[in-house]
Each structure stands twice: as structure tokens, then as C-alpha cells.
Amino acid sequence: MSGIYGNGIALTEKVLDFLWARQSVSLNNVANVDTPGFKAQYITFEEELDRRLTSANKAKKAPKRAVSDAVASSQSWLNTTWNESSRLDGNNVDMDQEQVEIVRTAYEYQYMISSINNDITRLKSAAKAF
User: How far apart, in whole angstroms, are the C-alpha atoms of residue 2 and residue 72?
Assistant: First the structure.
């Protein structure tokens, strides 16, 4: 898709996938809040995506292709929080933190959906001009 529409839509699609994964992990943490010994998990992707886009920006090959490759090769990482729990059962899920993360991710997801809708609307308007 990046050949026709540029990298913006592909990047938005990738970020939406990452946000969906983050939301799933947060909801899994909430579902396991009462599971003895359960350790909270979290998804990271922003740092890798930023690192790949920065290196693509400095690439010698065609910048558009380098950015496209950087977006396509980015992946999220599932991490486990191994810090000690204050609970006797060893579970370290912090419900306050998880609820904030769920709301924050939902807002980011809504923003990205709005962004891609605006991109598609602009493309439709440009196509109507022809």
C-alpha cells in the first residue's frame, strides 16, 4: 500500500496493531489480578519504531523505501514485570496503573483511527478532483 498512498497509512496501520496488542496485554493483566504468582506484562514498541525510523531517515537508499522497510520490520516486544509484589500471593498487578494504561491506549487508538480517517478523506477528495 505504501507505493500508492505513501508511508503514512502503513505507519498508522502498524501503530494500530501495536496499540491493539498493548490493550490486550493490559486486559489480560486485569483478568489475572487475583491469580497467585501472576506477573504483570507490558508491550513496548515506540522505542524500536523510533530507532528504525531514525536509521531509515539516515539511509543511503531511497528514503521512501527505507521508511517503508523500517515500518514493516518493526515489531512489538512482550515484557514481564519481575519486581517484587507487596501482596502475599506474589501477584504484582497494579490495578490503578492498568486502568490508566487501558484508558491511555484507548485514547491513542481513537486518535490513530481519526488520523487514518482524515488521510483517507483527503485521498478521496483528491481523487474526486480528477
Answer: 10
